[in-house]
């Protein structure tokens, strides 16, 4: 008997279907809370994992979808946006603005639209994997599709890959 689909995962799955996304949500047996965990579970390069990171920009949320092989440079993002500071959002803020838990934040399905930057590093991969509303659920997509789904802006959010892009062994 399979476990029932989590309500947030079901909501994200429906939104993806409505948007015409061909890839199906995959519920993993292990966690995808971090890019390394997701890459290991999927047997893909860590750079093909789209981390969903929420930041606070003068009290407003900003979602940055960044490659798992890339670290967001908050000073660079602040300069790009023309603001003084960009700070990581608190766990409470993440839950309030996305309706989803840290480690499972999907690029879509939030209570209100969130301005989004999509890391150009993700374009290096034909297929990228993003969270689907829960730390055990992901879906395959492409860089172009992430831009379309989120209405996001392509952006260089850091300085080159921070980890080697080789494939992580599947567990």
TrEMBL record:
Q: Sorted alphabetically, which Pfam families does this protein's record hold?
A: tRNA_edit (PF04073)
User: What sections of the protein cross the membrane?
Assistant: none
Q: Which GO terms describe its molecular function?
A: aminoacyl-tRNA deacylase activity
Give the top-rank taxon of the lineage listed in the UniProt record for this protein: Bacteria
Domain spans labelled YbaK/aminoacyl-tRNA synthetase-associated: 31-149
What InterPro entries does the record tag this protein with?
Answer: YbaK/aa-tRNA-synt-asso_dom_sf (IPR036754), YbaK/aa-tRNA-synth-assoc-dom (IPR007214)
Q: What's this protein's name?
A: Cys-tRNA(Pro) deacylase, prolyl-tRNA editing enzyme YbaK/EbsC
């Amino acid at each position: 008997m399979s476990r029932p689909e989590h309500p947030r995962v079901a909501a994200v799955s429906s939104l993806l279907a409505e948007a015409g996304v061909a890839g199906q949500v995959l519920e993993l047996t292990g966690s995808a809370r971090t890019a390394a965990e997701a890459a290991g579970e999927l047997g893909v390069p860590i750079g093909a994992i789209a981390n969903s990171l929420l930041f606070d920009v003068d009290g407003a949320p900003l979602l940055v979808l960044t490659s798992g092989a890339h670290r967001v440079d908050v000073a660079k993002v602040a300069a790009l946006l023309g603001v003084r500071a960009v700070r990581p959002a608190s766990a409470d803020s993440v839950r309030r603005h996305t309706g989803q838990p840290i480690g499972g934040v999907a690029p879509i399905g939030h209570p209100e639209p969130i301005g989004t930057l999509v890391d150009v590093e993700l374009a290096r991969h034909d297929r990228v994997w993003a969270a689907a509303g829960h730390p055990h659920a992901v879906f395959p997509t492409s860089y172009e599709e992430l831009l379309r789904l989120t209405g996001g802006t392509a952006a260089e959010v850091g300085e080159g890959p921070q980890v080697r892009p080789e494939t992580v062994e599947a567990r």
